[in-house]
Amino acid sequence: MVVCGLACWRCRWLLPLLLGLAIIMGIIALAGRGWLESESEPYVQQASLWESCTRGQEDLNWNCESLMDYGWGRAAAATYLVGFVILVICFALAVIAFSVEILRFNFVRGIGGLLFVVAAFQIIGLVIYPVKFTEEIPLMGDNMFSWAYGFGWASTVVVIGCAFFFCCLPNWEDEVLGNIKPTYYSSSPQRSQYLN
């Protein structure tokens, strides 16, 4: 006898876990110094969300300039940071929502809506930064947007995926809560003779 059914209630922590992963990637993006780096040696330029650093080819010390002196730098940092704060709030709400025995699915859909807001804020910050950086900061040598900038985009992609899942989850409310009776398939000797 085989029991077929969707056992989603046991895997309900997958979505909050993914949000936690997005938070970790967001922390790496916020703290990382690899938003922009020199592509090859000599490494003469690197930048984070907060500052841009350069050095001469023979110099060992970095000379850093704050990007918060620029309006676009403050805008990029503020939009990405606001999105990150809302993401942390969504994570806390998701943990609360999935901890309660009686899951409120309208509450879950609201978390999905907030996650779309997070994605919008993060995308704005991630687009402002490279456009204005390349326009207003003199670049030295060959540069590339590097690993920390990539973590920012990875966090945003995970948030967008989770937003869709949180918004669509109420459509499978009965399956998630286990309200659907399982379907049993069995083969009986009387039935098998008719199949031959």
Automatic annotation (TrEMBL):
Keywords: Apoptosis, Cell adhesion, Cell junction, Cell membrane, Cytoplasm, Membrane, Transmembrane, Transmembrane helix. Its main location: other. The chain crosses the membrane at residues 12-32, 77-98, 110-131, 151-172. It comes from the Eukaryota. It is found in: Cell junction, Desmosome; Cell membrane; Cytoplasm. GO terms for biological process: apoptotic process; cell-cell adhesion. This is p53 apoptosis effector related to PMP-22. The keyword Methyltransferase does not apply. GO terms for cellular component: cytoplasm; desmosome; plasma membrane. Pfam families: PMP22_Claudin. It is a multi-pass membrane protein.
